[in-house]
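Retry 2 of 3 after timeout on previous attempt. Resubmitting structure tokens to design endpoint.
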């Protein structure tokens, strides 16, 4: 009888735990956090001025107000939701990562911003509501995630209408304004996965930066996302805080000069440097991503381009003779990985828009990126329309050998230089022109040069 009572009590406890777990899952799925549950970043700046200053110039602060997101979301995403049943909630996935406080407030179509905001031309930094993008109080009230590893904005927020406990990575934190707590989430790379791993409506992984990191050598070396993107520095985490040996930067970095320059290394492999006019010269170039914890490029890889430009140049660096990459006849997808100005790319689905130039770059160069294809088999810049991804991006530390061959032009003589440049750009100029936006600058990642003597 006593045993039966214990068993009955255990069964009740199990039932209660199961029902609590069910309620918890339902609560996680249907979080509702009005805008006022989150403090304005300006409030945080009162104590964390340096972190606020760095954040306010970051892409996280522009995740909603950025000119590209504004154009793509309002002009294309919303307009395409009636195109197919799978797309009926496409805007939700965009807002879930680009304006998380709007997503939690249930506002999936926030007001469109009126100012152009990008890395080179930003607004005044006074951001409220959806325009806060990914901001202080949102990140520092995340308690856990629904999936392991996280993906598709599956964060669970503890924000309430009170001044909430803020989570972070510092030991023994203290603040006069809010309670503080140490959480291992903020030291682990998977906190980034919630938005940097994305499965689209057609069950295609259109962003996989966290997965790329997990498959690299860096987890085994104890190097996490924050190591590079929230670089540790000494100093006070807040005005009244104590100096600490580690105090993370909040600029986050990404695909800009500071992170792109030197991200990969190239080396020309050439057997001889004295050649003759009319002679055929064979050589190759090693290309290696040496400073990325993920593939290069990563993120929105349907837009990001890395390409290898090879040419003979004079002493001033002026191009005299372009050397195109050798086509790979054995790879039917090779056409996607050689720069082309053909109008074969679509800003949205191929049935909804006219084609534009795919790369808007000098033709014939080796291109490292992802080709996103819609269900008509056409190249699209719309990740929410993608049913297939074909890519040749550079894996971390992988050495890619590209083969070249050219015949020395008869008109050249004396000293010339064999030049190889690896370049990066955030977006094709053709796509920027389609949206009426500023062209993104070309950043030189790395270069190599060899002096040749033509007899």
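Retry 2 succeeded. Sequence:
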């Amino acid at each position: 009888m006593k045993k039966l009572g214990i068993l009955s009590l255990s069964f009740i406890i199990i039932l209660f735990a199961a029902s609590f777990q069910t309620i918890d899952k339902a609560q996680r799925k249907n979080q509702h956090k009005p805008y006022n549950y989150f403090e304005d970043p300006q409030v945080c700046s009162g104590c964390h001025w340096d972190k606020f200053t760095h954040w306010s110039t970051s892409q996280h602060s522009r995740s909603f107000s950025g000119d590209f997101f504004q154009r793509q979301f309002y002009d294309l995403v919303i307009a395409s939701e009636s195109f197919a049943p799978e797309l009926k909630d496409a805007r939700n996935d965009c807002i879930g990562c680009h304006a998380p406080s709007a997503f939690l407030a249930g506002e999936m179509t926030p007001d469109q911003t009126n100012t152009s905001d990008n890395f080179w031309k930003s607004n005044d930094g006074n951001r409220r509501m959806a325009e806060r993008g990914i901001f202080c109080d949102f990140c520092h009230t995340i308690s856990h995630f629904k999936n392991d590893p996280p993906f598709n904005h599956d964060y669970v927020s503890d924000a309430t209408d009170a001044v909430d406990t803020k989570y972070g990575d510092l030991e023994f934190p203290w603040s006069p304004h809010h309670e503080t707590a140490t959480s291992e989430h903020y030291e682990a790379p998977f906190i980034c996965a919630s938005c940097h791993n994305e499965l689209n409506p057609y069950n295609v992984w259109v962003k996989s930066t966290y997965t790329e990191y997990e498959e690299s050598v860096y987890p085994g070396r104890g190097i996490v996302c924050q190591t590079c993107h929230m670089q540790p520095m000494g100093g006070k985490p807040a005005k009244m805080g104590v100096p600490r040996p580690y105090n993370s930067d909040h600029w986050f970095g990404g695909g800009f000069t500071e992170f792109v320059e030197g991200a990969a290394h190239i080396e020309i492999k050439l057997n001889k440097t004295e050649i003759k006019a009319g002679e055929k010269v064979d050589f190759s170039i090693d290309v290696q991503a040496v400073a990325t914890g993920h593939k290069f490029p990563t993120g929105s890889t349907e837009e990001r381009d890395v390409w290898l430009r090879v040419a003979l140049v004079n002493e001033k660096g002026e191009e005299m003779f372009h050397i195109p990459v050798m086509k790979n006849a054995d790879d039917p997808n090779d056409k996607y990985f050689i720069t082309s100005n053909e109008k074969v790319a679509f800003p949205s689905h191929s049935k909804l828009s006219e084609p534009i130039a795919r790369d808007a770059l000098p033709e014939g160069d080796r291109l490292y990126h992802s080709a996103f294809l819609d269900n008509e088999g056409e190249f699209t810049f719309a990740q929410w329309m993608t049913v297939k991804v074909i890519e040749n991006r550079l894996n971390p530390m992988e050495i890619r050998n590209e083969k070249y061959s050219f015949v020395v032009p008869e008109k050249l003589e004396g000293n010339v230089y064999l030049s190889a440049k690896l370049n990066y750009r955030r977006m094709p100029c053709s796509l920027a022109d389609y949206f009426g936006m500023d062209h993104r600058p070309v950043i030189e990642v790395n270069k190599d040069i060899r002096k040749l003597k033509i007899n």
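Attempt log closed. The chain is about 25% helix and 25% strand.
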